[in-house]
Request: fold
Amino acid sequence: METRALLAIVLSIAVLVVFQHFFANQVPTTPHGVNGTNGSSVNSSSLSSDANNKNEALQANSPGRKEEASLKELKEIGDLPKVDEVKGQDVVVETPLFKAVLSENGAAFKHFVLKKYRQTIEKDSPGVDLVNVNPPLLPLGVKIVSGGEIDLRGRYFKADKLSLALQDGAAAETVRFVSQLGGDVTFTKTFTFYPDKYTIDFVMEISGAGADKYTVFLYDKPYNESTRYIFSGPSYYSPSTGLEEISLDKPGETHVYSGELDWLSYGDNYFMTALVPEDSKGPWDVRIALLNNDKLTESTLSSQVKGQVKDGSITLCKMNIYIGPKEIERLKQVGHNLSKAINFGWFDPIAKPLLYLLNFMYKYVHNYGVCIILLTIFIKLLFWPLAHKSAQSMKTMQKLQPKLQKLKEKYGDDKERLNKELMQLYKTYKVNPMSGCLPMLLQIPVFFALYKVLLQAIELRHAPFMLWINDLSAPDRLMIPGVEIPMVGGVPVLTLLMGASMYLQQKMSPSSLDPTQAKMMQLLPIVFTFMFINFPSGLVLYWLVNNILSIVQQYYVNKFTD
Reply:
């Protein structure tokens, strides 16, 4: 039973690693819907291959962006919005949390740089820019239907100010963009910024004319190619369907949905850009399309106009825009189920409490490495009675080996009688053969849940521990000048210590295995060391501390119990 339990752990972790490596980012697209109320995937004939190739050429080379394309280049691409001859200026908005740049051509975001999150762990590394596409395909571009379709993505909007700086404690302020659509008709986009929020209030109004429908655009590409083990791309949340993560493989492929909607977003495991309508009932029309081989995605959110005329103007829509980190508390403050964007899959019921507990401890110790150690101790104490009973049971089973061997020799040909005698022997000595493997099996879900937390939680991104471990979300490597290990780089010290502690724990644990099985089990620490070599250092730290605590517990059992 001990062999089966350990093999179960090895196979489970192996399956997790293989799944994450080959399949984690291949999320199936929602199946075809009925009557247009659920998601469906279709090929869009409107996206010609010629336009896709030109789009790809225009959008390439991010994050080191090209300069804005010339008007001549834009006019050669039929699928792109036309840009007004008036060259719009940039509007710069700074808060303690971010620096945003909006263009008067389209009244859309050109840059959104987070001040508290750097691209790498280097001190001079620039902040993460959550806009990684080029004009005129920018987030928050708009189309409306007013008699005919009017594309406002490249139209000139005059801003009421060209800069805005908000300090801590300041009141919210707005930036208003107005575009003249002809005659007395104006279209207004108003953004309200807060000094302490990544959330921006967004309102669209039309004056001097009516409108029937509007469409808001999001354009994006993967923020970080290194996040291939976790889903990265467009997603949305509906009260009827729950969280939908959309993976499109071929340029021209689209996904459509119609119905109630809490939010539409683009994101990866750490950051997201989300449109959050005030009215989730809608109905809302969502269309997500992969435009080219550069993974450029166009996501649109459309609805019929319900606003009432007031003072000659109509409010087309009100929504919140969230552009920032996937911090669970911030997302919960936004509401509308935006916190559901943090998805730990099957292990969510365990992973979320672990994340809350880590964040709670961090308020007091200010080191996530120490928090992981404290969390490991907490989990160990939680399982201590069961693990202690298991260790005692294994020790008793070892003492019973001579008796078990005699029963096997005596009743080896009579399986029914042998099982009956074994059960009687277990009952006499009050031992349960299953109790030796149960604690190990119970730790598997906790291990997987913590694996997901350390891989996805932005709190662990670039979080230092001590000495050479400066990022708990990355593998540990001790870099030695002049020494480079092939395929690995630096020395995985923490992983090697974890393997050694596992070997010592195994040597101390009573075993009921025959010599051949025992030799096979001695290979497990080596197998685990190789499996853990590219795991986040925070996860290796958890497993190392867990092994040390298990060694202490086993020493106590061997020394002080019969």
Notes: Residues 338 and 468 are 36 Å apart (CA to CA). The chain has two domains: 31-341, 356-560.
